[in-house]
Every structure is written in C-alpha cells, then in structure tokens.
Design goal:
Strand content: 15-25%
Strand order of the largest sheet: 3-2-1-4-5-6-9
Structural class: alpha/beta
Oligomer: single chain
Helix content: 25-40%
C-alpha cells in the first residue's frame, strides 16, 4: 500500500479485533460499524457491554464491495488494571482498538492509574498475546494549549491543555516505546470532537463526524504503515490541525462542520466572558475552556 492509498476495509472481514471501552459512546458506534464490515469482535469494558447494534453508518468508501456475513462478538467485563485478564482476552486477536479509560479531565492520580498504567497494560497484554497492532485512542487535547492562530502538526511538541492531555502524551509515548523496543505496530488517533453535529463554536474547528470517525479507525486498522500518529478530524474549513499524517495512512475525511451548521452556535460551556476571568493570549488556546486553570483545579481531589 502506498503512503496515500485508500484504506482497504475488506482486509478487516473475518479479522478478530479486541475493543476496550466498548460500552462508551465511541465504542458502541465503532463496534456497530466494524460488525457491519465483518469484523469478529472481542469487546470489553468495566461495565456490562451492550450487544452490538446495527445503526452505525458505514461510509461507502469504507464498505467492502461485497456485503460481509454475520460476525461474532464476545463481550466481557474486564478492567484495564488486570494485565493477566487482558492477556487472556487478547489471545488470537489480530489487533486491539484501545478506547478504554477516563475520557475527560480528572484528578491526576486517577488519570495516571487508569489512562497511563491501563494503556501500559493493554500494550503489554498485546505483546504477550502476539497481537499485531494496537490502535490507541489519543486526543486533540494533547495539543490544546497551542493558540488558535497556529496550525498544529503531529511533529510538534505536545502542549496538553490539562492532566487528561498529559495522560494521552504518556499513552502515545508508550505506544512509540512498544513499537521501537518490541516491534508492535501502533497507531495513535488524536480524536477531535466526535458527534453527530457541531455543538458549539469550537467544534467548527474540531468536529469529527461519526462517518469520518469510522473512516479514521478503519484507516488506522488497515494501513501498512507500522507506526503512526494522526488527527482524526473532519475536513472542516476552519480546521486547526494539519491533515497530512492522516492522509499518509489513508484517512480522508469527507465532512465539514461549516456545511452542517444551521444558524449560530453557542460558545463552549465554561467560556469566561472577556474581561471577567483569567488573562489569556489574544488568540486564545485551542482547548478553549479545557485549557483554563479552573477546569483542572475543580477536578483535583488530592
């Protein structure tokens, strides 16, 4: 496959992939799409995982020419804290999509335990089980302290907008270590604002439509590139992030936030009115309210 080849979703048909965080919002939608593509799923979370549904829209470019047959799904309650259970669960899998973890700002001790140590467990379990690839759900919040006048690419240093972003920096570093030291293929997907439609003005820059989200993960799962990091974001006219790294693994988003917005959008929740809060750079951080000191301080418990 060339650096700019389209992802070949037919390669997923009949493959067995584990999905952590399978009961979460992204996990439920992605599992449904992968099920339609004929992927045999091993789905796990810390809560009971609902049966795979059939309501996900699989983009035409991702759908194989021939309809896949029914695919099996094994659903298990397993905590990413349990290395041995993960190793057993991953046995016989071709890859792992690691969505599990705390998905927003929290006390650093909890983020370190769940997101950092948990990601280490997923990677180590994959190594022990002989899994070929781990696709890591990273986040745009890893670079949320860059200002809105800056176009960010994946080669630039991390500037997280909070402790959650720090946990994703550590996760990406662990992925790189496991690729360099142990030969495990890893692809880190810096997810934008995943949703049906933009919900606030920040999403004009960060929105990731659900079909584009599926395109991003299919590309990450099927690329022949051994190690990669890219932003999973729709082709928004006002985007903040360079899309070249995604194109190199076959991710070509099709949607644009500006074309689906009907009327003015509100400011992000927690936005401080001008002149009443903390001083900021004139352009402001890409993380918006996520980058404020209070957003982190309010969530500290120790």
């Amino acid at each position: 496959m060339s650096d700019h080849a389209e992802p070949d979703a037919a390669r997923l048909r009949g493959a067995r992939w584990a999905v952590t965080g399978a009961a979460g919002r992204i996990g439920v939608h992605l599992r449904s799409a992968l099920h339609e593509l004929g992927v045999e799923l091993v789905s796990t979370d810390v809560v009971e995982v609902p049966p795979v549904g059939g309501d996900a829209v699989v983009p035409d470019a991702a759908r194989p020419d021939a309809a896949p047959g029914p695919a099996a799904e094994r659903r298990e309650v397993v905590d990413v804290a349990d290395l041995e259970a993960l190793t057993e669960l991953f046995a016989g899998c071709d890859g792992v999509v690691h969505l599990g973890g705390i998905s927003d700002e929290a006390d650093f001790h909890d983020l370190a335990t769940v997101n950092v140590v948990g990601t280490y467990h997923v990677l180590e379990a994959a190594r022990r089980a002989g899994v070929g690839r781990v696709v890591f759900a990273s986040s745009n919040r890893l670079t949320g302290s860059y200002d809105t006048d800056t176009t960010v690419d994946v080669g630039m240093p991390p500037r997280p907008d909070g402790f959650y972003g720090v946990s994703k920096v550590a996760g990406e570093a662990l992925c790189r270590l496991y690729s360099d030291k142990f030969g495990l293929s890893t692809v880190s997907v810096r997810i934008g604002s995943w949703g049906e439609a933009p919900e606030d003005t920040r999403h004009l820059h960060t929105w990731l439509s659900e079909p584009d989200g599926v395109r991003a993960f299919v590309a990450a799962m099927t690329t022949d590139v051994q190690v990669a990091v890219f932003y999973a974001v729709s082709a928004n006219a006002e985007g903040w992030w360079d899309l070249a790294a995604g194109e190199a693994v076959g991710f070509r988003p099709q949607d644009d936030a500006s074309t689906v917005v009907d009327g003015p959008l509100p400011e992000p929740a927690g936005t401080v009115p001008p002149g009443t809060g903390e001083p900021a750079e004139p352009a402001g951080p890409q993380g918006g309210p996520f980058a404020s000191s209070t957003f982190s301080l309010d969530r500290m418990t120790r």
